[in-house]
Amino acid sequence: MDDLTRHTATMRAAQAPRLEGAAAGDTACSQDSSEARQRFSTLSAQRPESGDPALSSAIEGRTPEEWNDELLVAYEELQAAQDELCKQNEELQSARLELEAERQRYMELFDSAPDGYLVTDGRGVVQAANRQAATLLDAPQQSLSGKPLANYVEHEYRDELHRLLQRLREGEQNVPQRAELCLRPHSGKPFDASVTVATVQGSDGQPGEAGLRWLIRDITDRKRVEAELYRSQQEFRALVEHAPDIIARFDRELRYRYVNPAGEEVYHVPREQLLDKTIHELGMPEEVGAALEKEMRAVFESGEQRTVQLTFQAKGNEYHYETRLAPEFAPDGTVQSLLAVGRNVTDRVRGMHELELQRARLRAVIENAPVAIMVADEQARIVLANPAVTSVFGQQPPYGEPFTRRTDLGLLHPDGTPYEAHELPLVRTVFEGQILRDLEMILVLPDGQRRSILANSAPIADEIKITGAIAIFQDITEREQTHEILQRYTQRLQLLREVDQGILAARSAEEIAEKALPRARQVLPCRRASVAIFDFETGKARLLGVDSATETAMGQGQELLLEGSWPIRQLARGEVYAGSDACAVANESLLARKLCEEGIHAFACVPLLAEGRLLGTLNLGLESRTPLTPDQLEVAGQLADALAIGIQQARLHEEVKRRAQDLEISVARRTAALQASEARFRTVFEDSATGIALLDFEGRIIATNPALQRMLDYSARELLARTFDELTHPEDVAPGHALYEELMAGKRAHYHIEKRYIRRDGSIVWVRPNVSLVRRTRGGPQYAIKTVEDITEQKKTQEALIQAEKLTIAGQLGASMAHEINNPLQAVIGCLGLAEESLSEGGDAGLYLRIAREELRRAARIVAQLRDLHRRSSPEEQVPVDLNEVLDQVLVLVRKQMETRGVEVTWERADELPRVMAVPDRIRQVFLNVVLNAADAMPEGGRLEIQMERVSEPGGVRASFADTGIGIGPQEIKEIWEPFHSTKPEGLGLGMFIVRRIVTEHKGDIQIESEVGKGTTVTVWLPLRQGNAIQRPQPGAGPLAQEEEV
Question: Residue 126 class from Cβ within 10 Å (0-12 exposed, 13-18 middle, 19+ buried)?
Fold first, then answer.
């Protein structure tokens, strides 16, 4: 027993460190091997101890070897379990490291993903975000945690976000949901985003309780690309739809499946009617249709493109079409349809024909061109030359022979060096491709004569190489000679230009002479040049300026007598006064004597003429006795003209300055007058009893006077910027609005109309507005002026009169009396108004007062006549009457009324019109009634044309009144002569009845012709009085001479 005990103790002591190390290695290792350790511990605890009867009893019957073997077995089991556990522990540690590495890779992938990733709870509150999500939302990555995703969604898309979360809660949680939202970064521009969201699954593969994962992609570029693609599609569709070529698609049965609008132009039917039909069914000519269908079937069979040329007749014209047929393949490689593009090449074919005509014309031009034209081939051989080649070169062109072999053409460089063969224009152009322009050459003819030649050459080439050249040779000998002459003139003109510039820059006549005279000495061969100005009132000439090569006693400012110095008459005719020997004529001319004293012999005096008036002379003292050549005299004349114009301009400038001062004074006076006029207008505007308003282009009120404000019961501030449409009765708005638009469009100068306005308290006021257009200085509309007359009482009076008229015939007779009397009374009122205006303007009102008195007398006679309407009144005495004067008086009476109504009256006083026997008042009443009726027939304005003439058969005077009014119907014409019949609601029906009665009493006749909508013509004929015809007064002789045309 002692040996067993010692052995067991030894084994336990030896294994203890290993067991402790195993136990300390990992808690999992000790837990998993608990069963083996428990067994080992039990056996170890049961080791035999001396003196322990219980243990001795427990192992009784076992030998120490058996006990040791069992203990060793238990230890080996424990060792094996420990090794297994350590191995598992290492695998676990490795798995943990791999898991951590995988997690790290996931986080790196999550954080570096190109798309935005978010993890939120079920309510959409962010728990984690990668860098791209933070970049998209423009916020620090860590600051996103704990914030609702809705904070970064545009307001109008938040409902979509809530619906997305609702679908996740109500639908299958493991099915991702997608949506497109507009996200707004923390501080940036909103962008379109595609959002995919799904639930976060747990380790068991089941959806998490509340976690969501979000994939966010910026689709702004995609949206832009989609929009661009859509735009491209629309552009392509528009291109096809609006293409001038016919674009169509055919199926294998050769039926239309699509055709663009251009196809309608061929068949002249809507393209919808072309679909599902063949070209034969649509009426294409049989021969053309058969050829086209044959080519179409060939495309379907071969799968290759084809081009077809079609020609057919339609509507008497020949048309040419070029059609391109292209196959459209199915996925299996078969041709499923055919695309046809047809282009109308009629113009091109006609153009080719025209090109042939142009070629023929070109050949004709070449043949008849005045310049030499030669065409060479690619070997520089002449293949074409026109007849001018022979006349320019003096020999026949060398057809078929290369130019490189010709050395006898006699062509020289401008410096006289002969041309080598390879230097000739045609040769250089053919072999080097050079384009030569305006190459100057010298041609020596066989007779030795020299000509200047200008050569131009250009290659003729196809797409690959030069096939020839064309050269044009022009004889410019005469042009060169002309050029030399022009050079001399150019130099001369340059000097004249400098003289003109000096004259223009000068500020006085003296400065003009100072600048011009040195140039004169440069242009002309003279030692001395001076300008003399003539003063015919004093008979003296003053030297305005002198330029001399030597000292002179006749300097600037010196005065000479005109008489005996210059031949004035000769100079006034524009002739030059010249002499070759000043000393020889010294006794005849003081100027010549002065020049002779200074050693100058030959001289010339060129007149300075401006607007035909002699101002003075340009005096030239020549260097020799040789007189000036015609060219030099021409230059001197041009210089003299420039000097004359400059001196005249200097004088005019002084005159303009003086007149400008006078104008400033005049403007100041007129400005004061204008201010006074404006003050008078303001007084009239403010104090007028008639309402006045100024309106802008849109009809808004600019200003109103007190009378209008009282009429409408509004203040000036309340009316400002309002329109009269706002104040008008709704039933009266449209007519006035249309008339105002016509006024502002320039279709009428003014208009008047009757309408109703609504006052502040809602009451109605009847008014008669008269609107006129005020134009700007350049003719455009500036504003409108509107005068408003209150006719409320007049309307009430009219209604009362109409009502009273209907009571009884007696009442009608009484009303008719008022009506007939009203005409002269209105005439009296009009004349009094005209008299008042005439007096206010300082004129004579006597004429208007006399007419008013006569009208009052006529009113008295009308009362007597109406009283005895059905009784024959006593005849009045007839006297010779000048109908021109009667009509003059009538037009004076109605002038204002016609202007108010916008009626234009045209009448030309008849010459040599005889007098008629008549009662003047009665005839005046006839004319007045007819004119007033015409005015009533033109409420919107119009034209009244009056003609008066003598007629022979029957002898008398005929007066016709033609208006452009509303006209009278046939039935109304029959009834117009009846008493109390009127075509106007407010009329009494007695006017034309009395007119006819008056004409009949004068043995005359009256006729009416009318057409509804076009106008009415009233013709009055009165018999002649035997006697002499009257003479038309001279303009301004009579008091009514200015009223001949109203």
Answer: buried
